[in-house]
């Protein structure tokens, strides 16, 4: 049996910017 | 001495990178679609997908080599500015991965991109406001 190579898995939210609006008005 | 690696680029943007959606499903980064982000935010709890429209793109005066992106975010149209390398991909609603320099994105990540332009609406996340 061949051990499957571990492949890094990234969470979906690491791909999109976290744009937190600042309430400046 | 070993060669110094190039400045690290986030490997999650490399073509073929495996991405886990909030549903548990695994997809390659280049296969992601708008609905994958929307559904993931829905099941995540506490996160909300916002539409962030690109309203201005400039080269950074303070940080050479970076571009300054101005967004209006969400229903409030709040203004947000971020500095990123030109190869940084953003996911545009209905279009897919886009960057200020699709050529550099292809070189560094192997990821096919559209050209990010003013008026494009990008996927972004914010914290869900309690009702």
Write a brief structural summary.
The complex is a heterodimer of chains A (25) and B (131). Chain A is mainly beta.
Given helix and strand content, the structural type of chain A is: mainly beta
Structural class of chain B: mainly beta
Major beta-sheet overview of chain B = 4 strands, antiparallel
What order do the SSEs of chain A take from the amino end to the carboxyl end, as H and E? E
Instruction: Tell me the strand percentage band of chain B.
Output: 35-45%
- Our count of helices of chain B gives 2
Mean pLDDT of chain B: 91
Strand order of the largest sheet of chain B: 5-4-3-9
Biggest sheet of chain A, in brief? none
Span of the ends, CA to CA of chain A: 63 Å
Query: What is the average per-residue confidence, as pLDDT of chain A, rounded to a whole number?
Result: 75
Oligomer status: heterodimer
Helix content of chain B: 10-25%
Number of helices of chain A: 0
Cα shape of chain B = globular
What does this structure look like?
The complex is a heterodimer of chains A (25) and B (131). Chain A has no helices and 1 strand. With 25 residues, chain A is mainly beta. In chain B, the strands form 3 sheets. Chain B has a 4-stranded antiparallel beta sheet. Chain B has a 3-stranded mixed beta sheet with strand order 6-7-8, with no helix packed on it. The A-B interface holds A 7-24 and B 10-13, 17-22, 26, 29, 32, 36-37, 40, 44, 47, 50, 52, 71, 73-74, 76, 78-80, 82, 90-91, 122-127.
């Amino acid at each position: 049996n061949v051990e499957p190579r571990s492949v890094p898995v990234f969470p979906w939210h690491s791909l999109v910017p976290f744009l937190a609006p600042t309430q400046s008005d | 001495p070993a060669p110094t690696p190039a400045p690290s680029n986030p490997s999650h943007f490399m073509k073929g990178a495996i991405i886990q959606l909030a549903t548990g499903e695994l997809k390659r980064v280049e296969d992601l679609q708008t609905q994958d982000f929307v559904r993931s935010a829905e099941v995540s709890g506490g996160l909300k997908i916002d539409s962030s429209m690109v309203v201005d793109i400039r080269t950074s005066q303070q940080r050479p080599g970076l571009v300054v992106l101005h967004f209006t975010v969400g229903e409030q149209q709040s203004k947000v500015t971020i500095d990123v390398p030109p190869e940084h991909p953003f996911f545009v609603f209905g279009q897919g991965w886009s960057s200020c320099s699709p050529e550099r994105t292809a070189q560094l990540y192997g990821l096919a991109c559209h050209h990010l332009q003013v008026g494009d609406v990008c996927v972004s996340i914010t914290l869900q406001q309690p009702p």
